[in-house]
Each structure stands twice: as structure tokens, then as C-alpha cells.
Prior knowledge:
The chain is an alpha/beta fold.
Amino acid sequence: MADSAAVAPARVVGIGASAGGLEAFTALLRHFELDSMAFVVIQHLAPDQPSILPELLERVTPMKVVTATHGARVLTNHVYIIPPGKALRIEDDVLQLAPFDETNRARPTIDIFFRSLAEDLRSRAAGVVLSGNGSDGTLGLKEIKDAGGITFVQDPATAQFDGMPRSAIDKGVADYVLPPREIAKELMRLSKHPDTRFPAEDAAPQREGLTRLFAMMRHAFGVNLAYYKPSTLERRVSRRMVLQKVDTLDEYVTYLERTPEELDVLYRDLLIGVTNFFRDGTPFDALKTAVFPLMMADKRLGDAIRIWSPGCSTGEEVYSLAIALLELLGPTSADYKIQIFGTDLDETAIQFARRGVYHESITLDVSADRLQRFFTRHGATYQVNRRVRDLIVFSSQDLTHDAPFSHLDVVSCRNVLIYLQPEVQKRVLRIFHYALAPSGFMLLGSSETVGDASELFTVVDRGNKIFGKRSVVPHGPLELAFVSSRNNGPSEPALVGLRRPLANIQQLADRKVLERYGPPGIVVNENLEIVQFRGRTGGYLEPAPGAATFNLMKLARSELLPELRHCIQQAMQDTPAVSGRVKLRERDQTRVVNIDVIPLIEPETKTRCFLVVFRDERPHVLNPNEATVLDSASHAAAERVGELERELAVAKEYLQTTIEELEASNEELKAANEELQSANEELQSTNEELETAKEELQATNEELTTVNEELNSRMSELTQATDDIQNVAATVRDAVVIVDNDRKIRRFSKSAERILHLIAADVGRPVSLLDRFLGRDQSNRLVGEAIEGLQRVDREVTGADERRYVVSITPYKTSDLAIRGAVIVLASRESVGE
């Protein structure tokens, strides 16, 4: 055992429990045999009392049970017990201890370890929550599951205290809900499950299952898995195969075809939802100290501040951006129109984000001051305050299909690009470049970079992955087919029409002249990368062996290189035009090539380019047999040649002018084309915002419906109470009159109507109306005594019908003990005697 224990485990299992945990620990470890795993036990312990948990567990397991120490490397077949008064983490398979008071005694201990376990071991992590009160461990299980690990929860029916298990189950973070004994068996099965991998590219028969899986996802959810990196798909699919006890990919795809519920669960697993408030901390500090102040420097009171967080998951990152911005602006935040957009592919996550209600474990990431300022506590949850929620619009969006927002000041897309294929990353970055305002900023995740799109962004803060937008036009138009609606699909014919404007007859004629008489050439940028070929350049350029390139110095023929490099260097020194002359040998002949390098300024980006033109000198070689014949006509021929040369020079000058005019025309068409595309993109963005507003209105309508239902319920209760009062008033024998504080009649019974001769029109009249029956000034005086004395007043009077009555006047009290008038009861002396 000692030999096998001296190696790193294939999987590390974190076990968390509180009250009643000892019985569950014992049941789990007693049924676990020696294997390739290691266990870390996190128990809620009294910080100032020694623990005998290691001695108790050592009796029930053949594994070595030790108290965790700082710097200890986790080894196979070991059980590590957290010591009292310490917070435990794991990093690079090494345990890290810290005094518990450094992490705030009120914060959960199990979540601290589970979170570090997920970050360190990813798919090698497993989390187990056993008996205990409260909700500790729920957030940690979610992070383990999001990282590709496996999660277990004790069946509440077998737990002494079911608070922690039920919390994890209610949040949907449990892969298995089992008794401790069955958890041990399932862990051993997982350790023996074959390692699952995607088939290799050249394994065509095996890749049929992968193709079927892609097609099923596209059909069911409109998601193209080909956009994602294979490693991401491999971890998520492998995890589901392990949970469903399936060994091969083909078997799992067949299972998916038979079980639509599993397809939905796999889709949820593929939507990477790893997020938390103020993740990684320092980027948000950089936003407050550097980016937001630069952004606000160009803002005037009343201007809009627009921020977009694509791939926002359950909304923690979006709320973090809003809080950081509000902290910077302070009281002046009301002077600006703040619009923050949070989008994600997962509609369930978007609905969760809209509510803004989070588990109390967010105290791990949110300071006490921020909790007090921006959150409201409701039991075991915190809700983001309304003033923060009102700044944010959440919407479902597929970043790889749907139209983006525009005129944005900041785009925060953290840890989304790392899951996408490189070519998709580059296209998404071009979308962000389009969406940002000229002075906009982009924030990426700690493992992400702009890569091949470095020409679109400049580095603002390399450590925090903050980039600024460059004022450049990307090569080629923004691909509208890529960002069109996922339902409508791309419209390729429309794009072709936009990219290739129709030419008129003059332009067609000019093009033919250029093709026939114009000199061949190329246009290069400052990095000597070829951006355009003009005419037939095959006689001057030849591809070199190796990787494909557009660098002029690697494509030009070797004889041209010295003079070509010299001419370009001179042109870079702001020389209007530079010419050179080179001899090229081809078989038994030699030809002379003139090289012209002309600097250009790109109109849109104001960057320098260079037009390189190649012109051949082709001297006329005479045949000796023709010399005698031509001598006699040499004089006339010389004149004719001179005339033709002059005409040719004029023609060349005209052609050059035509070339310049054509280039200007092309630039104008290009600008018009890009404006049309920008207008179309803006319309798509506006449509997206309208759809988002529609969703918000629908949500408001649902809230109004709920309020209306509550009012209807209250109305029903009120109607029933009114009916009860009317029935009581109709059946009571004594006369009852209710008056308000102004001594005016508000209601009376049927008996009062009969005895006191009241009618419906008497409602609202003074109580002195009763004096005609009770005697002069009786009513006002008695009611005043009852209201002012706050006690019942009884008097015996003789009525107008000569009968004796007992008048009882009681103050009218509301449910909150406020006096709102009086109740007058008139009972005949005979009925009182009875």
C-alpha cells in the first residue's frame, strides 16, 4: 500500500458535512476500498477545540487518515482531515492552510475548498455533500460541476440533518443523490470507467457518431458545435458518458437519440457557466482606476454609457461591471444614461440573471460594504438592488450568429473565446471591433488574447487583458452571414450584390484597357504585405517553398530583391516616387525591368501603402537579312517611330490618369458599400434592442398579472366580508348605527332602519338625525363622550315611540387600534330584560 500511496491520485474527492456528518463519513469510508483516489474531509469544527475525527475515521477504513498540514502533497489512498480553526485550499495537488479568521469566520468553509478543488483539478475533481444544516457546499458543488467534475449529495432521507443536501438538490448541482454507502460504490465505479476521448481526425468510421451529435445539437438548439474547441467538447461529453455509464461515443449518441431529456442535459453542460462576482478582482480595479476615467473624459452630462457583456451566464459579471461603474460615478451616475447589456446563449441563465437573487455564499466574493450598498438580504439569499437592476438589460443571444450591439464604450467578454475555434475567435473579435465606439475598450479573460486580430486592438493593460480599439478598417467587410439571425440564416446572394457593385460600360472599357496596356504591379502596406495584385505579375513574383505568405520580399524574384528593397526604402522616406532598373535573365535572353514605387495614403485608415509597378523595356532586335531592305526606309521609319512613341507616351499618361480615377471611384464605391453594411448592422442591432425591450415588457406584464391576481383575491375576500356584515346586520334584533369621526352616519342595520325610520339617503348625514327619536342633543353628546373617553357609554332613554331603550355607544377601532368613529346600539328595555 505504501508504494501505491506515493503517487498522485487520479481523482481527489472533497467531502463536506456539518451536524450529523460523523455517521455519514463513517458509512461512506467503510464501504470504499483501496483505489486510485484521495479524500479531503471538510467538517464544521469548533475553532478552539481539538478534533478526534482522524482517530474515529481511522478505525473504519484501510486508507491512511491524517490531519491536513500546510504544503502536504495529496497522495493516493489517503484521507486528509481539515484541522480546527483553519481554512483549507488545494493548489497544484498541494494543500494550503490559512488561519480561518483571515477568510471571515462567517463565510462557508466547504465552499472555500470546493472552489479551489474545481480550479485546480477541473475534471479530476469530485465533490460530496453529506448531512448538515444550512447551505454550505452548494456553491462549491456548482463550481466543480461547471469545471467538468462529478458531484454527489446524500439522500436527505438518510441524513440526520437534511439542510445542506436539500440546498444542493434544490439548486440543481447534484449529479447523484444517494445514501453514503451507494456514493462509495459509485465512486469506485467511476475510477474503473474507461478514459473517454473523441475519435481521431483520420478515424472516419468512428467519427460518424460525432457528426450525428453535431447534427442533433444544431437541429434541437440551433448551436453549431464545430465552433467549439474539441477539448471543451471532449470534457463535457466524456463527463455525461461517465454519468450515464456509457463506454463509447457511438453508444452515447444512440442513447441521446432515444432519450431527449439527456440531450437537453448535455446542452446545459456544454453551456459553460463558470462565473462569480468580481472574478479575479484586479481587472475590475483596473476598470475603475484606468478604463472608466478615460471613458468618462469624453462624456458630457446626459450622454449614454453603453457596456456589453456577452456570455454573461447567470449575470454576476454584469452586475459587477454595474457596481464598479456606480462606485466610480457616485452621485453623478444619475446625470448619465447608463445602458448595460448582458447576453448569453442559455435562456435559463438569462432568466436567473434578471431576478438578481443569489445564494448567501456570494459573501466569498462581495465585500460587506458592497453587500450593504447594492444588495438586499432575504433569508439565505441576497438580491441585487432595483437601482442596479434597472441599469441592465438581459437578453438571449448567440454570439456566433446574432447581430451585435453598437456604439459601445466597453465590451467585457471574459473566458468565452477560449472555448471557440481560432477562426471563430478572430471573427468574434472583428464583431467586437465593429461594436465598439472609436474610443472603446475590450476586456478579455486571463487566458485570452487578441491573437491574429492584433491589427484591430492596441494593448492598454497587458496584465489585466484590457485592449483599446484601433481606428482601422478590417480586411474585407463584416460578414453579415455570420452575424445574421439564427432563424433566418445567411443571405449569400444579398452579400454578393453588396460586395460586387455593377460596373457601367465605361468602367468595363477602362478595365479592358488596363488589362491589355496597363503595367503589372502590386500594392503593399508598411509591413510589405501584399494587399492587392494588379495585372499579370507572374513574371516578377514567384511563390517560395514553405508556408504560404503575402510578404513581398519572400515572393519577388531574387534578381529583383536588391533594387526593389532600395526603392521601397527610399519611398518610405516621403519621396514622391522612386524608380529603379533591373536586368532579368530568362533562358538565352535578357530583359530590362523598370521598377516604380509610388507612396499612397489609404483614405479610411490614413495608413501608408506603396504601389509597385513593373515595366519591361523590350528593344527591337533586327534580323540581319532585313537590314538592307530597311536602310532605304530608315528615315521615314524613324519619323514614324518617333510619332508612335509620342502617341504612346500620351496614351500612357492618359492610362495613368484613368488608373487614378478608377482607383478613386473604387474607393468611393468601397466606402459606400461599407456605409450600407454599417447601416444594415445598425438596423440589426436596433432590432435586437427592440426584441430585448419586448422581453422586458413581457416580464413587466407578467408582474402586473401577478399583482392583478392578488388584487382579485383581495376583492373576493372583501366581497365575502361585506356579505357577512350585511347578513349579520339583517339578522340582529337591536338597532345598530355606525358613525365616523365627523359624527356622520356611515352604515346602519335593518332594525335601525325600522326603529329609527332611517332611509338609504341618510348615509352621510349628521348623527344628530337620531335626535328626533332619542331626544334633543342626545346623539352628539353621547358619541362625543365615547370617542373622547375611549370607552363604552351606556344610557337609558325614552324613544319617540314612548318605549324605554338602552343606548350603548362604543368607539370604532381599526386593526391597528386607531379610532375611526363609533358604533351605536339601541336595544329595547324588554329585550334587555329577556
